[in-house]
Amino acid sequence: MSAAPAYGEDKGGSAGPGEPEYGHDPASGGIFSSDYKRHDDLKEMLDTNKDSLKLEAMKRIVAMIARGKNASDLFPAVVKNVACKNIEVKKLVYVYLVRYAEEQQDLALLSISTFQRGLKDPNQLIRASALRVLSSIRVPIIVPIMMLAIKEAASDMSPYVRKTAAHAIPKLYSLDSDQKDQLIEVIEKLLADKTTLVAGSVVMAFEEVCPERIDLIHKNYRKLCNLLIDVEEWGQVVIISMLTRYARTQFLSPTQNESLLEENPEKAFYGSEEDEAKGPGSEEAATTTVPARKPYVMDPDHRLLLRNTKPLLQSRSAAVVMAVAQLYFHLAPKAEVGVIAKALVRLLRSHSEVQYVVLQNVATMSIKRRGMFEPYLKSFYIRSTDPTQIKILKLEVLTNLANETNIPTVLREFQTYIRSMDKDFVAATIQAIGRCATNIGRVRDTCLNGLVQLLSNRDELVVAESVVVIKKLLQMQPAQHGEIIKHLAKLTDNIQVPMARASILWLIGEYCEHVPKIAPDVLRKMAKSFTAEEDIVKLQVINLAAKLYLTNSKQTKLLTQYVLSLAKYDQNYDIRDRARFTRQLIVPSEQGGALSRHAKKLFLAPKPAPVLESSFKDRDHFQLGSLSHLLNAKATGYQELPDWPEEAPDPSVRNVEVPEWTKCSNREKRKEKEKPFYSDSEGESGPTESADSDPESESASDSKSSGESGSGESSSESDSEDQEEEKGRSSESEQSEEEGGKRKTKKRKKVAEGQGDGSSSDEGSDSSSSSSESERTSETEEEQVEPASWRKKTPPSGKSAPVAKEISLLDLEDFTPASVQPVSPPTIVSTSLATDLEGLTLTDSPLVPSLLSPASGAGRQELLHRVAGEGLAVDYTFSRQPFSGDPHMVSVHIHFSNSSETPIKGLHVGTPKLPAGISIQEFPEIESLAPGESATAVMGINFCDSTQAANFQLCTQTRQFYVSIQPPVGELMAPVFMSENEFKKEQGKLTGMSEITEKLTLPDSCRSDHVVVQKVTTVANLGRVPCGTSDEYRFAGRTLTSGSLVLLTLDARPSGAAQLTVNSEKMVIGTMLVKDVVQALTQ
Amino acid sequence: MVLFPLYSASIKELLKKIKTGIAHFLSHLDYFGVCSEPVIKDNVVVVYEVLEEMLDNGFPLATESNILKELIKPPTILRTVVNTITGSTNVGDQLPTGQLSVVPWRRTGVKYTNNEAYFDVIEEIDAIIDKSGSTITAEIQGVIDACVKLTGMPDLTLSFMNPRLLDDVSFHPCVRFKRWESERILSFIPPDGNFRLLSYHVSAQNLVAIPVYVKHSISFRDSSSLGRFEITVGPKQTMGKTIEGVMVTSQMPKGVLNMSLAPSQGTHTFDPVTKMLSWDVGKINPQKLPSLKGTMSLQAGASKPDENPTINLQFKIQQLAISGLKVNRLDMYGEKYKPFKGIKYMTKAGKFQVRT
């Protein structure tokens, strides 16, 4: 902060004369040219009681600091005011303190107590600024106080104060690095913070203090990924950069199975946001279609990072875009890196400093991933108004991008550049042409001819540069180019640029066999002008002379000796040395013939052709976007980007205990932007199976199911996260099994869909609606169906436990966060494991029915599993048709299917044990069900407007099964049709206690009318009431038994905020309905 | 700047932010809103206060000008007077609500008597036209700048007739990305005042209509010390709109000593030191095309310059977005009043060059 260095001569400058250069300044001159005498008055002003005078004084003092004048003698007077009530005075005192405290440590201590008081202030702004200043005062004695203050602030209520605490950490660290361990503890604590405000700052502190402690990140990795989009821009940059390093150490390189990823159409990965949402799904699908020959599956956490950073490419901040670009470049599979090109090209439009940085990075990337920028070739065309360094970088990129197909356009473009007025740029262009010629064999001759034409250019620089490049090109294939060498030889008369002359001489010497006649003549001319040449030319003349002497000594012996004699007396010792050395080598003397015999080999050894390559070639070992990359030198504080690990470190370190996670997700849910990560788990409990509503019965089933899962399921991975996550994490041995499972799932899904269509009207409406919906929803629906059907077909315990769990978890977010227990999500159960479980469940089959937790009216629910039923499988659906016998009864369709070997006979309902009020209308006895056959029956149940389960026995001739049907609250009613006015009238009657209101936020996915209506009607059997305004939805129904009205109103704002109102005199039903609908809508 | 400098792009970005942040404050004092040296000197204290809020130990703290404005009230003449009388201060003593809320870019408690929201769709054509008049590359870069002065917490949605046109977009953080992805609708709670809502790019794949052409004949002769110079500017594909504010500039080669030119309209200047020719044409009248003719005097004895100058063109077309982008409607939710809404289109030349 100290923008103003104190000038030495001003030290103690109470009597210093006013500085003339500021004397003219009308505003300050009056005050400052003579103000040294007024220091007394400043002191006086500071001592008064009037805030305005104090303020005035402080302003002048700060202005003095800004001018670089020493105001330290005022320290005692200023420090007194640190306790001033006026906040502006206070702030200025802070500015002063931060500037001078280090010089006057003893006096500075006087202010500490004020800060300590400030740290306890009820105003968070004051607490924060006290901490800021306290930590900025670099006085070693107060380190313990600072430490204490930081620790306290780290658990402050206000996130703003916690943010300040995070900022204070590096300050303290730089003051006293011995505190590191304690500071790391604070960082660890702050890393667990869930507010976006803190995240950026604490990661910054982490990077400063302990970047090597990557283990601190594990637990927070997913949280950081998910928060990222809501963090402010500066924080985003730091977090992304840190996560890049983290990912490099924790995940496997995605490029190891490059070929495979290329087989997948890119579309599947990032064609659109919809795809993005189910990224892991498609990844997984790819896994199943391609046989197991590839061992690499991207870690879901790796995928999460890529997915959550991608939207940030759309950020307005160039720094963020650059950060994401480097992340993708370093971490993404080859096929996906392409997305960043567009964003980077966009950045080229901003001002030239940003352009410079971006182009540097593009230049590096374009070497490795040329295809990525090829479509944007024209965006790199150079404008005459670009600054030179931008031009040269663009040229670099164009050269990197040139290939067989686009080289004609590129060369044509280069041709116009050669005529530019900017000579440095022209020279660079010529070099670029040279590079194109070496890289692309097809155009070498064209380029060479073009360059030769340039030799007649009037501009010396152009000619010289061309000669140098031609030299390099000729070296690659000298034989055919005698003509060009001759042409060059002629040029020696005209070209004055030393480098070019030297190059020509070297060429002639090297290929003197190709131009036997001209070479000696050139030497003759050079010998004549030898004394006037530049050093570099002289050296080459000696070189040429030596080579000619060796090949054509008859003609050139005398000339060579002449040249060598001239060189012997040259002013430059280099040349003298070279002359002596050469003479000894080539002219055979009496004693030392050993070397001269090999002179020809020494001078005319075949030389490897130079490689013309980009200066950006090896820059990618620096992390892109870093200062070190920009400078191509290691800057202080640069963190080396680690290489991918050979073996993936244990991914389970990132798992977080569930309660914490749920809380977090709960919080997230309220957020508008967040989503992708949860989309999968959303899918699992979509509208087709709304959650159970009775928390009590549920927690009962919870405890049982968890007990069971504990015994039965080996891998009791926790988390309410999506199943893909789990899947990826399971060990590789399970992989193939899982794939198999997945395929089966697909088949099952089809079956399930078919059945659904045939039997349940709701399912039908679902699928028809999905086709009319946007891609996104249909996609999510697919996902919803898939896991649902998977669960349906798995054995009872494997199924019922997760279902119950799933629901409870989701409920928990709103109701009982404490009682969450880890449970394994269904897909992790491999097929073989599932079979084992089947065996297990057989033993305690009577338990099964009570475990059943019916989830929704729309989908098919299981009443009896085929294993438990010894071959008899029973499902039921709520058909939502009026039951013919009794209008108060809910009609339930029961589907039997016999998968045993023998026919099942005499299916009927046995003596029901029913709670008071509930009655059952049994279905007619089914006489016989042949093996493989199925049958459907309808029964009616009067639930008496409660969600109590109807327990009854299902009897065959040989056995009895205890089963129970529990209705979701939405099934206890039937739609009623009424007009808007009627609705309003009825609603007016049902206010007060009968009205239940809940606020919710609709996720983006269900903002369209269609989706909202569909979701509501799936949950509850209600009829829609026409409504005048577009954002309001109304539904009406009557409970079946008592016929009381149930009115539901949803007032949805386009922003997503919505209010749900249910009016019903049955308050219990109303409450449950609100809960169910909210759940369905917010997922 | 102690800590932050490891990310090269960030530094540039940060410096820019600081500059705009400070300029923002000073502009309230200075009538023209320029951030010049004397202005900074006069307001050193404010600059200090602003910097203090923006950075903590080199790490950016609060860079949104809206928040800064709440932390420190910009100095205005009026406030200075009020402050001297009442003894109140420029520094706010409450944490700006925006800092903590979900919408950090908007301050709370905004009140206006006239509620208005203006959106300017401004498109710039970047093009390189070669010697023969054919387009080498042309792109449209567009921005939507907004000036929103609405009371309370309005929630706006802006929809386009043809959103698919936009190839690459970058948003102000207020725009809900998901909504755009799924429905191609801009939905946002706007910051208060002026801000850039969106910048977009219409890809080079779509054909870009070039609204002007330049006919030129610039020739140097080896023998004579005089060169001929002639440019004509004419409209094409303007969709019936007039082209205004046409300005032609060209960097002449070093060999050109002076130029004697006669424009058919507008004024022209040639700076013999920088060799910069500029011709302020004004409006193009399609009936009578503006032209600039004359001779160049070259350095005697020197050989003719072998490069031809590039012509840079500036122009403006009101009421037209050259890409064809059209705003469909703007709706406001969350507040009761009826705002005044306005949309303006404009097409400008960006980096528009004609090679000769």
TrEMBL record, chain A:
Sorted alphabetically, the Gene Ontology cellular component annotations on this record are: AP-3 adaptor complex; axon cytoplasm; clathrin-coated vesicle membrane; Golgi apparatus; presynapse
Q: Which Pfam families match?
A: Adaptin_N (PF01602), AP3B1_C (PF14796), AP3B1_C_2 (PF24080)
Specify residue ranges for compositional bias: Low complexity.
700-715, 758-772
Query: Which InterPro entries would you find in this protein's record?
Result: AP3_beta, AP3B1/2_C, AP3B_C, AP_beta, ARM-like, ARM-type_fold, Clathrin/coatomer_adapt-like_N, Clathrin_app_Ig-like_sf
Q: Which domain of life is it from?
A: Eukaryota
Q: Which UniProt keywords apply?
A: Cytoplasmic vesicle, Golgi apparatus, Membrane, Phosphoprotein, Protein transport, Transport
Query: What GO terms in the biological process aspect are recorded for it?
Result: anterograde synaptic vesicle transport; intracellular protein transport; synaptic vesicle endocytosis
Localization, UniProt: Cytoplasmic vesicle, Clathrin-coated vesicle membrane; Golgi apparatus
Annotated region Disordered: the residues are 1-30, 269-292, 666-802
Segments forming domain AP-3 complex subunit beta C-terminal: 802-948
* Biased segments, Acidic residues type: 716-725
- Parts forming coiled coils: none
Q: Where is the composition biased (Basic and acidic residues)?
A: 666-677
How is this protein situated with respect to the membrane?
Peripheral membrane protein
Quote the function comment for this protein: Subunit of non-clathrin- and clathrin-associated adaptor protein complex 3 (AP-3) that plays a role in protein sorting in the late-Golgi/trans-Golgi network (TGN) and/or endosomes. The AP complexes mediate both the recruitment of clathrin to membranes and the recognition of sorting signals within the cytosolic tails of transmembrane cargo molecules. AP-3 appears to be involved in the sorting of a subset of transmembrane proteins targeted to lysosomes and lysosome-related organelles.
Family to which the UniProt record says this protein belongs: Belongs to the adaptor complexes large subunit family.
Q: What is this protein called?
A: AP-3 complex subunit beta
Q: Which gene encodes it?
A: AP3B2
UniProtKB/TrEMBL annotation, chain B:
What is this protein's name?
AP-3 complex subunit mu-2 isoform X2
The encoding gene is AP3M2
Q: Name one GO cellular component term.
A: clathrin adaptor complex
Give all residue intervals belonging to the MHD domain.
114-355
Determine the domain of life of the protein's source. Answer: Eukaryota
A GO term (biological process) for this protein?
A: vesicle-mediated transport
Q: What is its main location?
A: membrane
* Aminoacyl-tRNA synthetase recorded as keyword: no
